[in-house]
Structure formats: structure tokens, C-alpha cells
Amino acid sequence: MIVINKGIPIIKRDDLIFAIKLIRKMRNPKTRFDEREFVKHGRDYLFNYAEKNVGPLDPSRRAFLKGILIGIGAAAVLSAIPVISYLNQPQITLKSFPWIIIVDSNGNPIKASEVPVNSPEILLFQYPMEGDITFLLNLGDENNNPIEVPPTTVVIPENGKTYTFPGGVGPHKSIVAYSAICQHLGCTPPEIHFYPPQYMKAGMPTPNYLPPIALQAAQQANAISVIHCDCHGSTYDPLHGAAVLTGPTVRPLPYVQLYWDPNTDYLYAIGMNLKAPPILGHTSDLSGYAYLSSYNEETGCPKMLLKAGQTPSDCYTKLENNGNTFE
Ligand code: FES
What we know:
19% of the residues lie in helices and 21% in strands. The chain has 327 residues and is α+β, with helices and mostly antiparallel strands. It has 2 domains: 2-87, no CATH class; 92-324, Rieske Iron-sulfur Protein (3-layer Sandwich). The strands form 7 sheets. The protein has a 4-stranded antiparallel β-sheet with strand order 10-11-12-13. It has a 3-stranded antiparallel β-sheet with strand order 4-15-14, with no helix packed on it. It is globular and about 55 Å long. Bound molecules: FE2/S2 (inorganic) cluster. FE2/S2 (inorganic) cluster binds at residues 182, 184-187, 192, 229, 231-234, 248-249.
């Protein structure tokens, strides 16, 4: 079930785990999801498939699956993990990064001042393509006051190269967005999740338990909060460009460049840094498997942006230097 909190959908942990299991079954050649049958029979086929391969569906789980289907059809950007449209797609490449407005699952733009500070809830949107799930975080201190996220230089431990992270946006410059796909082996929420300052203590109960090595690395780096992956223990520092605090990952989480419009308080995702490591599994952040469901190939604009009165020329960052505007 998708819970709406102040207009922002929050996905329950159980539903996420269910969705992840479902995706794994769908991708497994032995239990492959038959898209032709899905086209023929619609959601009944999906429900039967999920019951057979993952487990019984109570009414709330059915509503969650229905929500995913609606999200795909209705161009929601901030939505559940994409399931259907991510399957069996040949790789496609974007000419440049789309400029999208970040909306909730009802299609309403999210206001920067309404993004909860330090929320351990999972707030996700997809960028630059379907399936590229991304954390939206509003960072704060231990009293939940938003804190300015400064620009910083991020080191890639894998090769020693560096790139610039431009810092936070919004009224307090505290809002950032990072890929929610772990750079080690690709675990996704809820396995990888955000630990705000109040969870940065020894002995917290699961799911907020941080191993001592992660706590120690965070203290040494003056990280006030972390993103930690329970799969194998990788830890990232969201205040400093999602730099690596503990392995086994050797690559930081790539960031999505945000733009905040102070007149409307709306947030836009406008690009990624091609000098940063690409999203795990991609050869480049401009390549992926499916356009965002909101993407209109004719105009090159997300449909929802046109609805909001924008023109197609506003839809893209002005790309220079071989498609990369960022350092
Ligand atoms: S997939 Fe995240 S630590 Fe291995």
C-alpha cells in the first residue's frame, strides 16, 4: 500500500520487500513473467502470477499492486518500484538528460518546503529512466533543523578519480538526491536506506542497526547521517556527495542534480554528472531500459511538465562538453 503523508507517497517496508521478491521472480527464466498474457488479461494475470510465485494477496497487497499499475499508466514519477515496464527492454539511450518536475503519485508537484527533514521513510522518484530509483533526502541536524549541504569533491575509491558534487538545493540548501541502487551489487530499498542522526548510535534495534565499523567510519568522516546497505555493509555519506565510508563498494552513489524554483517551491531533476560512476548496471547514465512513463518522445518532454504550462525547450538542460554540464 502506498501511504500518503503530506502529499508524498511513502511505501511500506513490507510492500517493498514484496515488490522486490516479485521483480526477482519475474526476471528468473524459470518463472518468467509472460508479458503477452499480461497484455491479454491485464491485472488478473499479474495477481495470479504474484499469488503463485510470491505468496497470497490480501486486500491491501492487491491495492498496492494496483497502485503500481496505476503509477505506470499515469506517469507518476515518485512511485513504487517499477515492475512491469522494466522487464525485457532493450537498452535505449537518451540524447541528453530530461528536465523533470518531481511529483507525487497523484501527479502533484512536490514542494521543497514539504519534504520532511531527516525522514527515515523511503521517498523515491525515478530518474533519468524508468527503474532508476533515486532517494530524495532533506538533510538535517540531530534536532531536525535542515542543514546546508555544501559543494564538495568526491573521490572514487575504485580509480582515485574525482568529481564535483554541487551541494543541496531548496530554501535551506538541504535537499539532495542520490541513486537508491547500491553501487556494490545493486541492492535497493529497503535493504539500502537512510539513517538520520537520531539513528547514529550504537545498539539501535533493527532495522536501524548500524554495524560498529559503519558508525566508526561515519564519526571519522564527520558524517551526521548515512545511507547504509544491509546486503553487504556498504555505507555512504549523504552530506558529502554520497562518498564511500565503508566498502565493499568502491563507487559512491551517483547524484541527481536538482533545481529548486523559489517562486513555486517546486523541485526539478535536471541531470547527472557523467564524471561520477554511472548507476549500477548502466554503461552510462544516459542509457537505460525504458523511458520514464511520463516521457513524450515527440516533444522530448515529460507530459506532466507540459501540463504545468512549460514549453518543450524548457525540458532539457543546456548540454555542453559532450553532454555534460557538470564538472
Ligand atoms: S549490494 Fe549493497 S553492500 Fe552489497
